[in-house]
Structure formats: C-alpha cells, structure tokens
C-alpha cells in the first residue's frame, strides 16, 4: 500500500467517524426524550445517560388521559389546523407565485420586494394587531385565526420558493398553450401546476412541520382547553404551581413526533428535489 493510498483511506475513515459522531450528537436530545419517556419522574433528570434501567410504560397510558381530554383530541385539533394551513399555502402561494413569475402588472417589482421584506419581519411584531383584528371579529378560541391567513398568501417564503421554480420552467410551454387558445387559468392549472410537484411537496412538508410545531401563535389564540393543539397541550403537563409530570410529557412528546417523522420519511425525496430545483435559479 502506497503512502498516498494509506493517507486517503485514513482521511476517509476519519471523515466517516466524525460524521457518525455528529449524527449521534444531533440525535442525543431525541434519544434522551425517548429514554426519559420510559423512566419514572424521579429518575429523569438524575440520569443524563441513554442507558435504560427501568421500563415505565405507564407514562404513555397515564399521559394519554392526564389532561381534561384524551390526547387524541389534541392530535385531531393539530391535524385540522395543519390541513387547513397546507391547503391554504398550496392554493394561494402557488397562484401568487404564478402572478409574480409570469404576469406583468403595475408595481410588480415593488410588490415582490415588499413580499420579500415581509419575510424578515418577526411574527412578534404583527401578532398584536392581528390579535386585535380577530378579537374584534369574535373569532378568538377558534381555529380560524390560524387557518385563514394561509389562504391570503401570507407566507412569503413559499411564494418566493415557487416563483423561483416557475421561472425555471420554459416559457415556450405558456406560448404553445396560448396559441391553442388557453388563458392564464388553463395555463396555470393544466400546464404549470402539474410540473410544480417538487415545489408543492416542499411547501406542504415545511408547512406541516412549522404548523405542527407552532406553539406561540396557538397559545395566543387558543385558551379553551378543548381546542388545545399538541404543542399547547404538552405545555399543560408542566405547571409551576403544582407537581409537573415530566414522564407523561416526554411520552406524549414521542407520540407527537411520530407524524413529523413519517412526513419527513415519505416526503424526503420531494423535499430534496424541491430545494435543489429552486435554490440555484
């Protein structure tokens, strides 16, 4: 074995070892949560290791019915909000992206720049006026404040993502369809939309993850325990005024992570394709 071959193999092994160590480091919080869900409350914070000395499955059965409603109620509430947010973003963001990428209208560039500027504004800046609007409409403690804005193309990131994707599609498709007498509606729905599957899938996956994990907005608008979503319900396991049930909280946290894991597992190829086909344009 030559010196160069030995050095190349050593570098490759060292790189793989470092990558495995980085993966284990990144997975440690998730694995610790899983192990802690199988420990009694008194042993959770006294043992930071991943070695499981006890097997406390009662955390799952106790956590499922520990709150005012079964945990399935909060999973269903989150599913309703997530489904509405996904449909809203897919419909309106794709339409707005088509307008920015293919149409020509007055103040188009300033409007696109303003849309990009809105991405940089933190939600904490706009949450107060939004809350006042929904309160005056008597829609607090409903899912509407969490769903309706998605039907107004308020997520500029997804609009920008789809604009970049549409700009990468050849305009000859539009021109050929226009020669056949197609209008903008037919061009969008029958020509471009079927080709936007990677961008649409990326939007759906990111919307699912961000909405499912959203705690701040859902805590602001939902104060009725019967309407709690998963993040707000998990917060109810920890109470500063009484004894906290960390074992049950970690057990239900594991349950709440399963939909995210499944979404990422089955949508990973579309996620990679969507980012790869829009990032360089």
List the helices and strands and how they pair.
Blueprint: H1 3-36, H2 41-44, H3 58-64, H4 71-102, H5 108-119, H6 123-136, H7 144-147, H8 156-167, H9 172-179, H10 184-195, H11 197-213, H12 216-221, H13 230-235, H14 246-278
Task: Write a short abstract of this structure.
This protein is mainly alpha-helical and 281 residues long. The protein has helices spanning 3-36, 41-44, 58-64, 71-102, 108-119, 123-136, 144-147, 156-167, 172-179, 184-195, 197-213, 216-221, 230-235, 246-278.
Describe this structure in words.
- By secondary structure, the protein is mainly α.
- It has 14 helices and no strands.
- α4 crosses α11 (197-213).
- It starts with a helix and ends with a helix.
Could you list some keywords that capture this structure?
mainly alpha, single chain, 14 helices, 281 residues, 0% strand
């Amino acid at each position: 074995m030559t010196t160069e071959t030995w050095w190349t193999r050593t570098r490759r092994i060292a790189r793989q070892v470092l990558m495995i160590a980085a993966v284990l480091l990144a997975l440690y919080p998730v694995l610790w949560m899983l192990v802690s869900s199988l420990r009694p409350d008194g042993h959770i914070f006294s043992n930071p290791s991943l070695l499981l000395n006890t097997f406390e499955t009662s955390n799952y059965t106790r956590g499922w019915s520990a709150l005012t409603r079964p945990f399935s109620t909060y999973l269903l509430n989150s599913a309703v909000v997530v489904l509405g947010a996904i449909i809203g973003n897919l419909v309106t963001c794709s339409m707005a992206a088509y307008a920015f990428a293919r149409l020509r209208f007055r103040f188009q560039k300033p409007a696109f720049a303003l849309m990009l500027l809105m991405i940089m504004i933190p939600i904490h800046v706009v949450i107060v006026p939004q809350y006042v609007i929904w309160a005056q409409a008597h829609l607090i403690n409903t899912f509407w404040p969490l769903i309706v804005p998605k039907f107004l193309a308020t997520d500029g990131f997804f609009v920008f993502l789809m604009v970049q994707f549409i700009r990468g599609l050849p305009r000859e498709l539009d021109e050929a369809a226009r020669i056949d007498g197609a209008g903008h509606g037919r061009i969008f729905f029958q020509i471009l939309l079927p080709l936007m599957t990677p961008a649409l899938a990326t939007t759906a996956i990111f919307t699912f993850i961000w909405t499912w994990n959203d705690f701040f907005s859902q805590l602001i608008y939902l104060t009725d325990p019967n309407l709690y979503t998963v993040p707000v319900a998990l917060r109810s396991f920890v109470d500063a005024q009484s004894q906290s049930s960390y074992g049950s909280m970690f057990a239900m946290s594991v349950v709440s992570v399963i939909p995210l894991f499944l979404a990422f597992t089955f949508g990973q190829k579309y996620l990679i394709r969507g980012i790869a086909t829009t990032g360089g344009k």
